[in-house]
Amino acid sequence: MGNSKYRISHQPGYVLVERLPDYEVVFDEMPEFLAEMSAFCDEVDCRKVLLLGPKTNVNLSTLDLYDLGERIAGTRLQIAMVESHDASDADEEFLETVVFNRGGPIQFFANQDDAKHWLEIS
After folding, report:
1. pLDDT value of residue 3
2. What is the pTM of this model?
3. Which structural domain range is residue 90 located in?
């Protein structure tokens, strides 16, 4: 499942979302992406997500990050992100904090092993 920019698949114990190289995070496209990811998770009855992005371009304002964090928290998914991206560490922390403060677990990782450990699927 997915579109030309990402693939979504069910793996043992988690949902894998793979963004293609040079994926660009566009705020206006995020509601549809989150809805598709959430619907897939509902379909396979799995709330744990491993999101991989080999080279992701992030050009979001602080307000966009805040709104995105609220939307992510609303999915009620546990999301581990392993991405190579151009967002700052401060932007990562801000997004994690917004999601966490609204009851949603999300965390960025440098490698898949750490992400899988956090998701408790390793």
Report:
1. 66
2. 0.92
3. 2-119
